[in-house]
Design brief:
about 30% strand, 22 strands, about 600 residues
Length: about 600
């Protein structure tokens, strides 16, 4: 909003005690209070005060005296914390000495309260005259404190220490053994480090489906992601001249090969029609493929292939980033067969044993554009990576509920084109023992058990959520890398009630139904735990869950974990109890009875 103040009288001195002999510029003070009311009830108020000086170059009186900060141990810091503006009245700060009585009348009923409003010495609970406690115990008059508010316990709460400028460190791993070396080698999942002791990053997808540009690359974890961008939001990644820590303190240079893409139809997903004169293009990175050659716990070589192309305004680019780890003993682009188990980040193998072509797939959605199911693509389920994806299905207001259930079920079943899942990463299609059958829990059949009635725009029991649970275990290790196998796979559905969302006006007869697919990996022990012996089952003396008397927690009220009452009270009661036990032990001793009887003789 805009407030205009017009002068209808002559300029006067702002200060009441000033005279015409002074050099203070003539000015006028205009104060405006704006109230927001509803049904004669004030909801909010705004105070506007303007000082209009005849000399436009006036900047106000600036005092050259430094502010004296009192000792915080003996006196609170400042008597009026809400006094924030020097030489002017702060609105709602009733302790501000620069506020005249006329100004205080504007906000007298809305003054700041508490310490910020000037009550820097509030009465404490232990004071005899304090009325802040809702419940006053009977013994309070005997133990309360009679003291002046100048001797408040709030004094001394301020920390006295050296003030240092906080430094924001880069993306680094703290507590390095030596500045140059990372450690004796990489382990699976460790972030790869650069020569500057920072993370080596490549754009990756987060759990929300968005691309993160500064995501660290983990050792022995492959990935293949696509990120959508345009010319406005395009950002260059990490330079390719950065040297990588091999894991033992040595640094290796990236072997980079640049190639040009002439056919950009596979990368450009959308294009807007613009005039040729207004078209602005730039040479950007379309794809980057990283190949890490590793041996044991070290990186031996890095090969990078960068594909460049021209991106123009109005075009949406689907960038692709891949990272692949190959063993030095098998660098012919074939996978390592030394560890037959799954590794985190590798696709889960699937097979369709009921078809002549046994190759199968286990996928989740990878939405693009508007997120519609018609334009969504598939991405494989990665081992050890819990995922949640989905898309939006367009539904008409006159949609038949049975047809809608069948359509949604078909969309969800298209993600799982398999009957079995491989136990290991190198399961053989000819050996059925290398595969586990997918357990399917069919969705609820609402046609026979649910009466939908004649409700238009409402469909109950729509199987809109697909739940994939994969149970795996560590069955050993090969070369220090865990060998993980899949034990079981279960697929279930969760139903929802779809209702047509009309909005403000019902001009559009199309509504949306979000359908999702979630993947959850559950780790279980490779061997079932040993059964409990009869002695462990029957011995409940020290079992706090099955026994009313819990001896291991005898002194629990005296520990810091007990929060039922203040720790000082627990400690006092504990010391008093210990004193009674000690007194009982002394009285029950035979020499005490002899001493007592001899004292009366």
């Amino acid at each position: 909003s805009k407030v205009t103040v017009s002068l209808t009288r002559n300029l006067q001195l702002c200060l009441p005690n000033a005279t015409d002999c002074c050099t203070t510029p003539l000015c006028v003070v205009e104060t405006l209070q704006v109230l927001a009311c509803r049904d004669s009830v004030m909801l909010a108020h705004l105070l506007i005060q303007a000082e209009i000086y005849a000399n436009s170059s006036f900047t106000g009186n600036v005092s050259g005296n430094a502010t004296i900060i009192p000792n915080q141990v003996f006196q609170p810091l400042g008597s009026c914390p809400c006094d924030l503006t020097a030489g002017a009245c702060d609105v709602r700060c009733c302790c501000d000495l620069e506020c005249t009585p006329d100004l205080k009348q504007l906000f007298n009923e809305s003054c700041f309260t508490g310490v910020f409003g000037g009550d820097v010495n509030p009465p404490f609970d232990q004071l005899c005259t304090s009325e802040s406690m809702e419940y006053t115990p009977d013994w309070f008059p005997f133990l309360c404190v009679q003291s002046s508010l100048d001797n408040t316990p709030f004094l001394g709460y301020f920390y006295h220490g050296s003030v240092s400028t906080p430094s924001v460190p880069p993306f680094k791993i703290p507590l390095q053994a030596s500045p140059g070396k990372l450690f004796t080698g990489y382990r699976q999942g460790d972030p790869i480090m650069t020569e500057e002791n920072e993370y080596f990053t490549v754009p990756q997808q987060s759990m929300a489906g968005q691309c993160v540009g500064n995501a660290p690359v983990a050792y022995l974890q492959n990935f293949d992601v696509k990120c959508l961008t345009n010319l406005v939001s395009y950002e260059e990644g990490l330079p390719h001249d950065v040297r990588i820590n091999s894991g033992t303190g040595d640094f290796i240079q990236q072997n980079v090969i640049y190639r040009t893409i002439n056919d950009t139809s596979k990368f450009i997903t959308e294009s807007e029609s613009l005039h040729a004169a207004e078209l602005l293009c730039q040479n950007v990175t379309f794809a980057e493929h990283y190949t890490f050659i590793w041996k044991d716990q070290n990186i031996e070589q890095i090969n990078v292939t960068v594909f460049l192309g021209s991106l123009c305004d109005g075009e949406i680019l689907s960038q692709r980033f891949t990272v692949k780890f190959l063993s030095l003993e098998n660098t012919n682009a074939a996978e390592l067969f030394g560890n037959p188990g799954y590794q985190v980040g590798k696709p889960v193998r699937a097979a369709n044993m009921n078809a002549s072509d046994t190759f199968g797939s286990l996928n989740i959605w990878q939405p693009a554009g508007r997120g519609l199911c018609t334009s969504a693509t598939y991405t494989p389920v990665l081992f050890g990576v819990d995922s949640l994806s989905g898309c939006v299905l367009e539904v008409d207001v006159n949609e038949d509920c049975s047809f809608l259930r069948g359509n949604v079920t078909e969309k969800l079943n298209s993600l799982i084109q398999a009957t079995h899942v491989g136990k290991r990463d190198h399961s053989s299609y000819s050996d059925l023992n290398d595969w586990v059958e997918i357990i399917r829990l069919d969705p609820f059949n609402s046609d026979t058990n649910v009466s939908t009635g004649n409700l238009k725009g409402i469909c109950p029991d729509i199987p809109a959520n697909l739940n994939i649970r994969i149970i795996f275990a560590e069955v050993g290790a090969v070369g220090g890398i865990p060998r993980q196998e899949i034990l079981a796979v279960q697929i279930s559905y969760s139903t929802v009630i779809w209702q047509f969302q009309c909005g403000l006006i019902c001009e559009n007869s199309i509504s949306f139904l979000p359908i999702t697919a979630s993947v959850q990996f559950i780790k279980v022990p490779a061997k079932p735990p040993l059964p409990m012996t009869r002695f462990e089952i029957n011995d409940i003396e020290f079992d706090c869950n099955r026994n009313d008397v819990c001896w291991p927690q005898l002194f629990y009220p005296l520990t810091r974990f007990y929060t039922g009452e203040p720790y000082s009270q627990c400690l006092a009661k504990g010391l008093f109890l210990a004193f009674l036990v000690l007194l009982a032990a002394i009285i029950s001793n035979p020499w005490f009875s002899k001493l007592w009887s001899s004292s009366w003789i």
